Amino acid sequence: MHIYGAPRGTISFLQAAWIYDPSTIDRSLLHDGSGDEPGVKDDDGKWDTRPHRARITHVDWKVLSGWADLLDEPGTHFDQARAIFPVNSSTAIVLEKIASAPRLGALDFHWTPGWHETGDRQKGYFERRPGFAGSWQDVILQGPHLSAGTALFQQPNPTAKNHQDYKPIDLEEITENFIPRTKYQRASSVSAYREAYTQWNGHPSCDDFRLSWRAMADPATARTLHSAIIPPGPSHVLGIFSLTVEDPLDLAVSAATTSSLIADFFIKVTTVANIKIGVLSKLPHVRGHALEQEIVLRTLRLNCLVRPYAPLWNTLHSAEWKNDRWVPGAGTAYRDRSEVGEITSSWQYDTPLRRPADRRQALIEIDAIVAIMLGFTADELAAVYRTQFPILRQNERRLRFDSFGREVPAELVKELDKEASGGHKIHTLQAPDRTYVGPFFAVDRERDLRLAHEHFSRLVAARQSQSPDVAGKIGRGVDTA
Description:
alpha+beta; four-stranded antiparallel sheet; two-stranded antiparallel ribbon; 16 strands; disordered C terminus
């Protein structure tokens, strides 16, 4: 940020961010404030240079105080606040609501950056040898393994040349004992390896369930914050950070929040290159909300993909979950789709969501629940998505699911669109390893977000209309059957 001018007794200046044409500023200063607020990119995927009064933020000591509350250490004076760069007024309002929420940093947690990728390898604790470990205890995860709501997003190819030499993991094809391929393998004795890794509470940190996230932040991609729960056993290199907390409910709620668009948006506007613990700890953490069990169920069904997650599922299982349903009218209602609450009390192979359509819908419903927990309106949630996630919006326009809830590969979507433009109706699409069966469904994420926000808002209102005792028990996840 550059501010030019004579010294003043008070701080007062205008700020505009995400500007791709200098004339946008001049025209925004003259704009009457009508029309939709612009974002990073427009609906055609081009840089959004439209003028709008909402692009201009008047920054004074009150705004700077809010920024300091968001990012800096408690007690930081407003004139030393780190700058934040909202693209428009709607996202600035969202930031104010985030600033007033309880923070993850208020929890008593332990964290680790994991192995030093160069130093600890040179010490002989592990070596570069792409392949499969014999057990989860020998797995060394790297950033690309993770994405929002899953620690099994992709795995390196046998060549493992770089961070792009990875292949997606098909969650429908893996077994309950699946172990991902890794770039590094343990090279020292088990005892030396465990003793050298970060210790907390008198044991290696890898013995606990942990919230993990990619250290690198790239706001130019579909998602900037990639977080997931990792089970006891695996360690990780510095490309991932992880933390643990005493209460498993806190772990599940923090995993939900950090996988949401709201948390991702927060990271985007801070423009940090590395998501260190000081930044992540500023994210909201709301407990005891009336929708806590709904968000925990969806989070665990996203994360608990293999047998090592069973203890977490079994510990947090609630009898309330059997009554839970997908948001009516949202998502992709493919054939034989089961409800989100159709699960067993103990972990089974079909406990996690494995169909891409269901995983997408669970993340959308988490987005809506987090927004409601923080007091966001449906319009504010939609504005965050529409203005701050241009790549995700672009990907969604190309997204298709088949009648079994499977994502159609991009190359086949082109064929589908080509045939559709010619008036032909395609019943099947053939890939080398799978046949995709029609009808094929397009998606509308903003519509789904609004439907989910409306549904869960009604659910909260209904629960709050009950007696305070029952409503409080529901909010704390107590079985009232």
